[in-house]
Design goal:
This protein is 35% helix and 26% strand. The chain has two helices and three strands; from the N terminus they run βαβαβ. It starts with 7 loop residues before the first strand and ends in a 5-residue tail after the last strand.
């Protein structure tokens, strides 16, 4: 019997829409990943995460934001 693959939920926080879209498309296309949300700023990202019932497994954050 094959074991169920866990879906990794992720959030992308980056101020460049093309970067968010690129990471989202790449990971979603790889299989086993699901976009839980995206934000264009730290404030927007914090609000997004605080409003989630279930936190994501992974956050991809542009360290240049600040």
């Amino acid at each position: 019997m094959r074991e169920e693959q866990k879906i990794i939920r992720f959030v992308i926080i980056d101020d460049h829409p093309m970067t968010r879209r690129g990471f989202g498309n790449f990971l979603s296309g790889a299989g086993g990943f699901e976009i839980a949300g995206e934000a264009a700023s730290l404030t927007e990202g914090r609000d997004l995460l605080e409003g989630m019932q279930k936190l994501p497994d992974l956050v991809i954050l542009d360290i240049g934001l600040g």
